Backbone:
């Protein structure tokens, strides 16, 4: 096959604006290359196409390109060495001017104990890479197409088996929809509820404003349920929560308070949904991580036609994967698929296939069990350090998840958070997670300590910094 623009070299876009004469073409090419380097479009070290390749691309003589390169080498814009081709010369480049951003009083945080993120340094890179290679080798050609809006069937089948075994979820692959994380799933459900004519969703008194704001943007109000020492009061559904026909719950491990939804309150929520035609949105964000006993099964198992189960790989693996899933009641599936399709959000097929292989091969179970041991040790270290160094405070909630609530003496939360700021320790107060319309009865000063966030080498330092700022 002859050498053409389609078979030679690498792509380089240039607007030469050359004249008809050879000297005009050479000047146009030289000016275009110089401007591309000066403007930063061609970064230092970038290898340029060979003179032969660029000449074919531009439809000009090879000698013209060679002369232009020689001119720019002489000017210092390019370098040319035998065996390494022609490259953009290395030089000091002034950084772009950026708007000043306010800094924390104590500078950038040295330690991070904010909740919601696992230890990213413990991501199973080697096993994930092995699973990715196996999945790609076995993938059918149609896996690289647009695909089923529910997600790859391989992942839905793997999830159905895993969720039934590990979380007690009654899952059929046809009723599983793969999402780009929990937030994606919740935003879809919010729009579906609004299209159904709903005006309000009941939520827990403590939670994430990100989730509440998603529902607000869908046109829904959020009404907080009462909360007491036993957790969320589901008896308030249908009364205190107004006209809500849907409720968002974290039953296995309430976020952030750390208590499970008691059996009688789980039953009350399901009874309400059956009686009123309501819908429970179950956020099982860290259900695999229980340390003092076997994890409590998912609420969805009590009534799959009244509960939407939402899970995610963000806590068990990494949020950067952007992989989550919904197990839907049969009556909701088509509406959710229609809204997902209209939203334009999609999940990479190769990551879905890799996760399917990761689960099926047993690597996911091994990773979760290893992570469970690691996080349990960290929680034990936290409890022991508090007992020794800060007896005035105490951790509350069950031994589970990636965070703990540390109760403080009344009136000290803000001063402790400020002290942590000066110590360059990122940690959040409990008031940060309280719904603005929550009843005033349960207002405790506390910190929400994310002990899963630091890398292993940083955990001891983060714990020491926390103990220094506690009363």
Residues:
């Amino acid at each position: 096959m002859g050498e053409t623009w389609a078979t030679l070299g690498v792509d380089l876009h240039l607007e030469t604006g050359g004249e008809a004469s050879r000297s005009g073409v050479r000047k146009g090419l030289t000016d275009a290359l110089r401007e591309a380097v000066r403007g930063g479009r061609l970064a230092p070290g970038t290898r340029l196409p060979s003179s032969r390749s660029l000449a074919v691309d531009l439809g000009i003589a090879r000698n013209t390109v060679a002369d232009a390169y020689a001119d720019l080498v002489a000017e210092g814009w390019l370098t040319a060495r035998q065996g390494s081709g022609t490259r953009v010369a290395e030089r000091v480049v002034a950084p772009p001017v950026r708007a000043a951003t306010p800094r924390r009083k104590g500078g950038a945080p040295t330690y991070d104990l904010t909740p919601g993120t696992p230890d990213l340094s413990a991501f199973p890179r080697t096993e994930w890479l092995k699973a990715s290679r196996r999945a790609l080798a076995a993938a059918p050609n149609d896996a690289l197409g647009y695909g089923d809006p529910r997600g790859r069937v391989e992942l839905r089948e793997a999830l159905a088996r895993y969720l039934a075994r590990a979380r007690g979820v009654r899952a059929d692959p046809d009723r599983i929809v793969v999402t780009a994380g929990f937030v994606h799933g919740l935003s879809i459900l919010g729009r579906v509820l609004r299209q159904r004519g709903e005006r309000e969703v009941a939520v827990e008194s403590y939670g994430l404003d990100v989730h509440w704001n998603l529902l607000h943007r869908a046109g829904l109000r959020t009404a907080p349920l009462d909360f007491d020492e036993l957790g969320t009061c589901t008896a308030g559904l249908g009364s205190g929560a107004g006209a809500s026909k849907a409720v968002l719950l974290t039953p296995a491990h309430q976020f952030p308070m750390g208590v499970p939804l008691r059996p009688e309150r789980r039953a009350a929520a399901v009874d309400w949904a059956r009686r009123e035609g309501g819908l429970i949105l179950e956020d099982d964000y860290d259900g695999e991580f229980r340390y003092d006993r076997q994890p409590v099964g998912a609420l969805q198992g009590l009534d799959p036609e009244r509960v939407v189960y939402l899970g995610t790989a963000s806590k068990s693996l990494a949020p950067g994967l952007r992989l989550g899933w919904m197990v839907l009641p049969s009556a909701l599936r088509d509406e959710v698929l229609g809204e997902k399709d209209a939203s334009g959000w999609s999940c990479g097929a190769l990551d879905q296939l890799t996760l399917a292989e990761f689960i099926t091969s047993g690597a996911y179970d091994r990773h979760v069990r290893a992570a469970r041991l690691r996080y349990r040790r960290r929680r034990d270290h936290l409890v022991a350090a508090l007992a020794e160094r800060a007896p005035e405070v105490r951790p509350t909630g069950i031994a589970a998840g990636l965070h703990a609530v540390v109760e403080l003496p009344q009136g000290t939360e803000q001063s402790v958070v400020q002290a942590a700021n000066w110590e360059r320790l990122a940690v959040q107060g409990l008031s940060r997670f309280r719904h603005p319309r929550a009843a005033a009865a349960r207002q405790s000063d506390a910190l929400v300590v994310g002990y899963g966030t630091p890398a292993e080498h940083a955990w001891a330092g983060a714990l020491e910094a926390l103990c220094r700022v506690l009363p």
Remarks:
- The CA atoms of residues 285 and 311 lie 6 Å apart.
- The first strand starts at residue 78 and ends at 81.
